[in-house]
Amino acid sequence: MEEKEVKTFQFVVVGGGIAGVTCVEQLSSQTPCADVALITAGPHIKAVTNYRQMSRTLEEFDVEEQPSSILQEKFPNLSVIHSAVRSLDTKSHRVQTADGRYFGYNKLCICSGGRPKLLSQDNPHVLGIRDTDSAQEFQKRLSNARRIVVVGNGGIALELVYEVEGCDVIWAVKDKSIGNTFFDAGAAQFLIPSLEADKPAAAAPCKRLRYTTEEPTPEAAQTFTADRHSRGGSSASTESGSALGPDWHQGIILKGSEQVTRRVSVEYQCEVENIFTSKDHLTSSQGTHRHENESWPVYIQLTNGKTFGCDFIVSATGVVPNSEPFINGNTFAVAEDGGLCVDDHMLTSEPDVYAAGDVCTACWEHSPLWQQMRLWTQARQMGWYAGRCMAAHASTQPIELDFCFELFSHVTRFFNYKVVLLGKFNGQGLERDHELLVRCTKGHEYVKVILSRGRMVGAVLIGETDLEETFENLILNQMDLTPYGEDLLNPNIDIEDYFD
Ligand SMILES: Cc1cc2nc3c(=O)[nH]c(=O)nc-3n(C[C@H](O)[C@H](O)[C@H](O)COP(=O)(O)OP(=O)(O)OC[C@H]3O[C@@H](n4cnc5c(N)ncnc54)[C@H](O)[C@@H]3O)c2cc1C
Ligand SMILES: NC(=O)C1=CN([C@@H]2O[C@H](COP(=O)(O)OP(=O)(O)OC[C@H]3O[C@@H](n4cnc5c(N)ncnc54)[C@H](OP(=O)(O)O)[C@@H]3O)[C@@H](O)[C@H]2O)C=CC1
């Protein structure tokens, strides 16, 4: 990097999503005399509010999109810089931003999140959903759509196929059942009837975030616009904002152009063969749906031999960590999924550089009951722990891996059911000798526990089961449950009393 005037901070955090903001909050409050900077590409920051610890590892919180001034008012030692980091020189401990400025750091934490891993990067008919801009683009395109194709079998696809009304939805999944990143086939079977039924008239009250549609402050907007122009790109695809999160769809209308309620058909065990825009590619035997003789803006050919015309395709096919601007010119260890490898102190392989949230890959030896998933809760936990590690290392204090990394836990909602996932909820990485116990009442609840050598190692709880705390304890204390056998899920036994 050429010599320029450099302002140096003790701590620099890159990224105004949940991971970055939590890290900054932790650093600013723990080290009030230190100079802390948050450098973020987006005009807003995402803050955790109403944090509630539901049990030892389960947590719930709201998320608010806020102007960064709120954060600065709270922490006088914090500077917020609205510009994207273009490059990092770990040797000189400096970052360069898109507007040509340089900032030095003693310790840096990269929390730049991820972006959708799209089926096609440059096809205007293929959309991804990540931030407020891309959600609004999706909403706009949907309002004129009669049919869309959703590809992918994870969180976004599950949410979309349930929420979208007023157009046909073809859902193409690689697997034999729906929602494979979260569920097994049994849970999928439990959930499928909800796709065929109408949505309840009054949806479950939303306890979480409402996204603002406010314009950014003029100052922030200016910097953001300048950054976008400097890359010569259009808004959504260049400088993405922070990821959406729980209940993102509650604030926007997800309706197509037709007067129909939800109409989803699932294409199982197939991937995308081809995407094209000319109807000439169609052979007579292809397509199984209404409007088959019509012309469509785009066609998608699946590996099961079927081709569908549609208004656009949603690629809900996962996330790629935003690690490139930081990797170039440095020697970071990068994981197979593109994430910056971090150790059990959230340190990357470069000195004084930490990473947290979707951009990082947890490369330490995990507790047998924890795995990384790119989720809101883990972004918060990693950001918080990274902040603590940075402060501890700066004052040469020892610090141990936080308890939240002992047990995987996630609370969410799918198809209007509460869903709690604990530990190795899908038997991830377990020997074949593990045992499953299942209790299911159609339309009411689905409870699955995974036992390995008589110990509970994971659970899936769908519906208002009220079992999460008891099961969390049973997983954490690794009690031998062999004597209880199937009574563990006997609905006539009050399991909480049983183990008191
Ligand atoms: C539609 C959708 C629904 C979701 N629903 C849920 C859910 O229900 N539950 C759940 O647990 N998780 C959910 N997630 C996942 C969750 O939102 C993410 O895991 C989490 O927000 C990641 O936080 P992060 O801070 O690591 O990254 P992000 O939120 O992506 O933030 C990254 C930040 O870095 C900034 N940035 C990027 N590059 C640069 C750069 N070069 N220089 C400076 N700044 C940069 C961005 O502007 C942004 O502010 C959902 C995700 C999506 C997309
Ligand atoms: N309520 C919640 O907790 C929610 C969480 N999220 C999070 O947001 C992030 C983005 O969500 P999403 O995009 O759904 O990502 P997910 O990682 O949840 O799911 C991606 C899905 O796409 C599949 N897939 C990947 N590549 C292809 C391909 N080329 N063709 C067909 N299918 C493919 C994956 O299959 P395979 O696994 O076999 O590769 C997987 O089923 C994730 O981190 C997710 O956890 C999102 C919404 C809700």
From TrEMBL:
Domain spans labelled FAD/NAD(P)-binding: 10-163, 298-383
Signal peptide: none
Disordered, as annotated region: 212-244
GO function term, MF aspect, one: oxidoreductase activity
Domain of life: Eukaryota
Keywords of this entry: FAD, Flavoprotein, Oxidoreductase
InterPro entries registered for this protein in UniProt: FAD-bd_OxRdtase, FAD/NAD-bd_sf, FAD/NAD-binding_dom, FAD/NAD-linked_Rdtase_dimer_sf, Rubredoxin_C
Cofactor(s) annotated in UniProt: FAD
NADH-rubredoxin oxidoreductase C-terminal domain segment(s): 416-478
Composition bias, Low complexity: 214-225, 232-244
Family: Belongs to the class-I pyridine nucleotide-disulfide oxidoreductase family. PYROXD1 subfamily.
Function: Probable FAD-dependent oxidoreductase; involved in the cellular oxidative stress response. Required for normal sarcomere structure and muscle fiber integrity.
Name the UniProt record assigns to this protein: Pyridine nucleotide-disulfide oxidoreductase domain-containing protein 1
Lineage: Eukaryota, Metazoa, Chordata, Craniata, Vertebrata
Gene name of the encoded protein: pyroxd1
